[in-house]
């Protein structure tokens, strides 16, 4: 009898309430299962890393460890539904041309960042933001201009959108590209007036050079992933959907997940049918490793990007009437890949920028069985320039629109020049999509855009770039309100990653993924949303980032 009583007392003392941690004095916000915004003052987390409860101010709290967050704003961890994890890490470790405003500035940055040996790699250039003699550059950079900064070592520098590469003469020679090399399907070799390769490769033509580049070493790949994980945690991302991976990247993620080193949850998309079959020959890989990693989606590309005029348009480009852009595949092949992936049980997520590409993708999704569409939650990645008549098809077909709000504010001037006012009626049309009943997932497409999710919230709400332009917002009829934008980067992205029962809100039973931020986004002026910094990031009740004071 005495032993039984002692055991009972011991169990009581070791019960869940005594092992729980309480984050008190919080200015807490979360959405609930019905999408309603809820407030709380205390977050209760169990020793299993999951939310036990939230409590209002003044509520009596059980015994347990108390952490006073001193009135700071506490939010669910934010989710980026479309990023490129390894690309983010590689950018941080390579030459970064983001923000350069001229060829000369780019050359200077390249010279400063030259590695000691090997290929010269980098990204971030954008000829649309370059000027010369006080006027817009109005052209792609050349191999000769890159030669001036790199000499005879081969160089490969991706455009900011990842859909074109600036290469030097040494790289062109290494790849065996000549004036007689034909454009590959889905790609274009830019030529000079004499018909020689000029130094820019668009979309599939980039593979002509990447095929001869030495692959990164294991140490280089690990360094890139370490850098990406640290960066994502520092901006408040607790989950990310990695939009296109190969088998080597998956193996690295598994190794990190097994070792407990994934500090951001990764929902991976295999890049194309070959990688899908290599990574998951037995079918989709559901959330595992304590819900740190999954691979149940396949990424396809229907076209390129607007900046390089690779986006596939129904009519010629307004600023270059000799081209309509590039479909990556014939429509019959695109449809077959979508049907095959869907039949194998994979969510199929298709990059589509131009109105022709979006129309082709929606037509392909339309022939997949409805039961598969409902269960698998197929996605259109970007949904950027869409024919007005195609916008209602997202909701009718149950296709998720995975959008990146910062694309609109970065692209606005360029998009007007590329496609003209009429086609922008269906461009970046988030409000129209939401009003039609379509589901929205928010992301950034990092490293094409910065990974900071508060940049995305700001762009979604204000339709302004971070310098406040245009003052009245760009095509404001398509803006989101703040709660909708918050949902896009939490519950919307969680649903798009088949994780709505795991993350996205701070409801009981879900993982305690949360962030503590410097300002309250729900009271901050909309124009200042992008300035909100992250103080701490927590994953499953464990702190993975703390801002240095």
List the helices and strands and how they pair.
Layout: H1 2-13, H2 16-19, E1 21-24, E2 27-31, E3 37-40, E4 42-45, E5 51-55, E6 65-68, E7 73-76, E8 78-83, H3 85-93, E9 95-96, H4 103-113, E10 120-125, E11 131-132, E12 135-136, H5 143-150, E13 155-159, E14 164-167, H6 169-175, E15 187-191, E16 197-203, H7 207-210, H8 218-234, E17 237-245, H9 247-258, E18 265-271, H10 272-279, E19 285-288, E20 293-301, H11 331-343, E21 347-352, H12 355-366, H13 370-376, E22 379-382, H14 391-397, E23 400-403, H15 405-423, H16 430-435, E24 440-442, H17 453-462, H18 482-496, E25 514-517, E26 534-539, E27 542-546
Can you offer a commentary on this structure?
By secondary structure, the protein is of the alpha/beta class. The protein is 33% helix and 24% strand. Strands 8, 17, 18, 19, 20, 21, 22, 23 and 24 form a 9-stranded mixed sheet that branches. Strand 9, helix 4 and strand 10 form a beta-alpha-beta unit. Helix 11 crosses helix 12. The longest helix is centred in the last third of the chain and has 19 residues. It is globular and about 80 Å long. The termini are far apart. The N terminus is likely disordered.
The helix count comes to: 18
Low-confidence stretches: 1-17
Computed over alpha carbons, the radius of gyration is 24 Å
Helix content: 25-40%
Query: Kindly, what is the distance between the CA atoms of the first and last residues, rounded to a whole number of angstroms?
Result: 56 Å
**Largest sheet entry:** 9 strands, mixed
Strand content bin: 15-25%
